């Protein structure tokens, strides 16, 4: 994952404190659903069906202007308006769907949207929803970034000062939205990115890209509040779900992840003025064949003073996961930071409970915290993850961490 903190970088960039008891996790926040306007629905200024407007679902003809026209027609209306993308393959370039709108808008996606391989067609992202309240995307269609056409242009594995390829679906400054049922496939960069959003409900998505595809995070959340992700399958070349700075009250449940890099918080502390990450619950999830499982990572020479606090990971199954449980306060990819051992990112009140399965490496638990700012209030309860490789020697690596454990497999009881 390449973290960022503002739309200028392509927008890429409370579980209760369970200090002494982990018997009950907070209930998930209320599902965010687009409100229905009480006003009498108005007639929009033209059709909301992109085929009726002139789009051709032949996979070759540019349909960008017809989607933009349908949005314009819906946005100026009142009540609830439904944009229809019917069966077919609709090729498009960059699509900016911007508000504020006077209506509540639903996009019914039953066809397939194909992102052109011509990178000159994008300023930043592919499909960007900006400054919109009461919005939904649902259906059985696919948002296909056609990433294989451009992945060879991605140089971010060599340098963080790289050109960011377009994210597939981006929500910026969106409040009260639901995304349900659709498939996101082969993004050029991130599949779904949220920045400064509130009350977003994501359900029954399928996100898929090859395990070796570069920086194809499934869902990234930054500077956002009250996010629910449930009943979703994610296969990617990077984090299945990544939680960035400034994000609070996130509920992730019934997610299947793998291949990919797991469910990650961070990276934290790369930029100045980052905000806390607080109140995360991950429950009833399965991770299979991922490079990491449940991960919290912050830069060793972090620029910001912030907290990662009040996280609960409950009922998670690991299948051949390389590093199932990992806190890394000494994250330093590509040697871009000085390895001073210092940190400004406080990691506190983190609970791992009912975590079972197999590890692809001996280190089933890795808690590598900063010398100057040890992790506090870390708890391991009912944790039994075994190394499945030759020799079956399972270990825990714990540095500069304070907390407690109960009913933990003996090799992992390092607290």
TrEMBL record:
The keyword Phosphoprotein does not apply. The active site is at 261. Residues 29-49 are annotated as: Disordered. SMART domains: PbH1. Keywords: Cell wall, Cell wall biogenesis/degradation, Glycosidase, Hydrolase, Secreted, Signal. PROSITE patterns: POLYGALACTURONASE (PS00502). GO terms for biological process: carbohydrate metabolic process; cell wall organization. It is found in: Secreted, Cell wall. The keyword Signal applies. Belongs to the glycosyl hydrolase 28 family. May function in depolymerizing pectin during pollen development, germination, and tube growth. Acts as an exo-polygalacturonase. This is Exopolygalacturonase. It comes from Leersia perrieri.
């Amino acid at each position: 994952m390449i973290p960022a903190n503002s739309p200028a970088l392509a927008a890429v960039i409370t579980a209760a404190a369970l200090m002494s008891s982990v018997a009950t996790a907070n209930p998930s926040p209320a599902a965010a659903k687009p409100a229905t306007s009480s006003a009498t629905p108005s007639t929009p200024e033209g059709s909301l069906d992109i085929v009726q407007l002139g789009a051709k679902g032949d996979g070759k003809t540019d349909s960008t202007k017809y989607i933009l026209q349908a949005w314009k027609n819906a946005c100026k209306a009142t009540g609830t308006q439904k944009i229809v993308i019917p069966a077919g393959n609709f090729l498009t370039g960059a699509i900016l769907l911007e508000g504020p709108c006077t209506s509540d808008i639903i996009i019914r996606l039953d066809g397939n949207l194909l992102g052109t391989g011509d990178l000159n067609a994008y300023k930043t992202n592919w499909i960007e929803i900006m400054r919109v309240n009461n919005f939904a995307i649902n259906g059985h269609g696919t948002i296909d970034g056609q990433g294989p056409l451009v992945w060879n242009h991605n140089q971010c594995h060599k340098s963080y000062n790289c050109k960011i390829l377009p994210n597939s679906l981006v929500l910026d400054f969106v409040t009260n939205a639901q995304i349900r049922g659709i498939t996101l496939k082969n993004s050029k960069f991130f599949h779904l990115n949220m920045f400064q959003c509130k009350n977003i409900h994501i359900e029954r998505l399928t996100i898929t890209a090859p395990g070796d595809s570069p920086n194809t995070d499934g869902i990234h959340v930054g500077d956002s509040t009250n996010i629910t992700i449930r009943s979703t399958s994610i296969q990617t070349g990077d984090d299945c779900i990544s939680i960035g700075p400034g994000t609070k009250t996130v509920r992730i449940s019934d997610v299947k992840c793998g291949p990919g890099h797991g469910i990650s918080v961070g990276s934290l502390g790369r930029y100045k003025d980052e905000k806390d990450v607080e109140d995360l619950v991950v429950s009833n999830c399965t991770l299979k064949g991922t490079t990491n499982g449940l991960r919290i990572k912050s830069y060793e020479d972090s620029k910001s003073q912030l907290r990662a606090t009040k996280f609960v990971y409950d009922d998670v199954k690991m299948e051949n996961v390389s590093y199932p449980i990992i806190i890394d306060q000494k994250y330093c990819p590509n040697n871009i930071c000085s390895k001073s051992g210092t940190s400004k990112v406080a990691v506190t009140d983190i609970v791992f409970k009912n975590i079972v399965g197999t590890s692809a490496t001996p280190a089933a638990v890795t808690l590598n915290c900063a010398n100057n700012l040890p992790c506090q209030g870390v708890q391991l309860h009912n944790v039994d993850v075994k190394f499945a490789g030759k020799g079956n020697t399972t270990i825990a690596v714990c540095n500069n961490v304070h907390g407690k454990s109960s009913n933990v497999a003996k090799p992992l009881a390092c607290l």
